[in-house]
Amino acid sequence: MSKHLVQIQGLQEQVYKVKDIDKDIKRLKAQLNDGRETEMSLKAKIVERLGKGEQVEESKKVIEKEKHRKHVAAIEELNKVKSETKAKLHDLEPRKRSVELIIAEANNVSLEINSVKESGAAIQHKLYNKCEEIVTEVDNYSNSISTSLKKVEELETLVVDQLCSVLTVRIGQKWIDENLQK
To answer: How far apart are CA 125 and CA 143, in angstroms?
Structure first.
């Protein structure tokens, strides 16, 4: 019996070991299933990301093509604007030279005007001084004539008075002579 007991204990230990192994197997199967699920999930994510990567690559190619097309269009527009600008600049060159000539001529006329103004001002100043001298001379002459006229008037009055006296004396003498002769 003790043998049986030992055998039963041995069997019981084996049963426990089997149960432990069975638990380990279940645990490992669960881990395996979890790993498979994780693997499936990761594979799905990989497929999804590969699809997104392909989409991104396709989008990138489309964007690059659009960028290139817009770049080419912008270069063409830039060249067109450059060409138009050069043509306009070429057309403006004669006008620019004409304007420069007109400005130079205007500057010359302005210089000539300033010169004439300056010389006119100098002549005007000389004429003003000459007029001042003439007015002074006229005033002096007028004063001297006025003085001379007064003297002439005084002399005239004196001469008239003397003439009258002489005439009176002569007329009186003539009358006396006429009357004495009669």
So the answer is: 27
